[in-house]
Amino acid sequence: MIMSSELPPEEPPAAGRPDRRADARRNQERVFTAAVEVFAERGLEATVPEIAARAGVGKATVYRSYPAKADLAEAVARHRLAWLAERMAAAARQPDAFTALRDLLCDVSEQLSKDRLLVEVLPRARRWEEENDISGLTEKLIAAAQRQGTLRPDATAQDIRVLVGGYSRVLIALDVRDPAQWRRYATLSLNALRP
Amino acid sequence: MIMSSELPPEEPPAAGRPDRRADARRNQERVFTAAVEVFAERGLEATVPEIAARAGVGKATVYRSYPAKADLAEAVARHRLAWLAERMAAAARQPDAFTALRDLLCDVSEQLSKDRLLVEVLPRARRWEEENDISGLTEKLIAAAQRQGTLRPDATAQDIRVLVGGYSRVLIALDVRDPAQWRRYATLSLNALRP
């Protein structure tokens, strides 16, 4: 709001003088990129001063776009969850459902190994789950793998939630950040559901 | 202490008058049995008044044998861990190591489904683990199953800790107390480690 009133869109940059609107946009992008990094490293404990420092801007620049830390955290969380929703939709389009499910869980686990914000936000993202029909997508993948004879007939979405939620909690508690370990437990957990 | 000075062992019960020593012993047994039940239901939140009420005795009777709740909790925890150590030793003596491991995990999981105290105490029972060589026993079972070709060559005791610790945490968080569910995830987790 402040930016757009200071810099009305019809005003062209004056020659020889920096384009303040382009500067502001670049700063905003830097803040967002830094926020993605810092939230990934430290989860919701990350602070605006840390993010500003990483972006190489002042705190005021951050607050100009995001009045509170919660606004920035929400924007970053939405960005990460959008990735996850796309990744799940891509899995649903693959022909071999077991492989699709395994690769999906491996990729998600790898992201969880690197992203504390995702770890903290995902268990509470009920509305996002509903809006993106995460249960529906998971159940479709499970049903397809069962038709293809590659998953136990009694496997459920709840099984995946318990097994994946389970090793994730332990790996987080042990502060394991090695993506290979996370991918290994994703693979093992899907093996658990082989017929 | 109080009991033994009140009731010296050489004194026989007087005819027509209740044997106070036998009464005290019966009360102690009742308190212990009640404590096992109440700690199983409520974990370390259980209180001495609750335990006394379940045993049908006064609080003073509990405190006579156990000066503080922590003493009673420790006695009960030791009793439950002794069961677990015996159960593990029995598994190590079975000829089919995979079946032994699976049945062991199923039985332990069933106990965890019923016993909040065990759930709360087990992750912190480092000294008990060392004294009973729990790691050694687990590794022996794993090595035997690998020799018998029934477990992945790269399976480790850590895998069992991550997978079993994992579903246990989720089932506890969801307050699942159905033993069949717990046994199911024990079986699935061992299936995960099949070659």
TrEMBL record, chains A, B:
Biased composition (Basic and acidic residues): 17-26
Keyword DNA-binding: yes
DNA-binding region(s), residue ranges: 47-66
Domain of life: Bacteria
Domain HTH tetR-type: 25-84
Gene3D superfamilies reported for this sequence: Tetracycline Repressor, domain 2
Region (Disordered): 1-26
Keywords: DNA-binding, Transcription, Transcription regulation
PANTHER family: HTH-TYPE TRANSCRIPTIONAL REGULATOR BETI (PTHR30055:SF234), HTH-TYPE TRANSCRIPTIONAL REGULATOR RUTR (PTHR30055)
Protein name: HTH tetR-type domain-containing protein
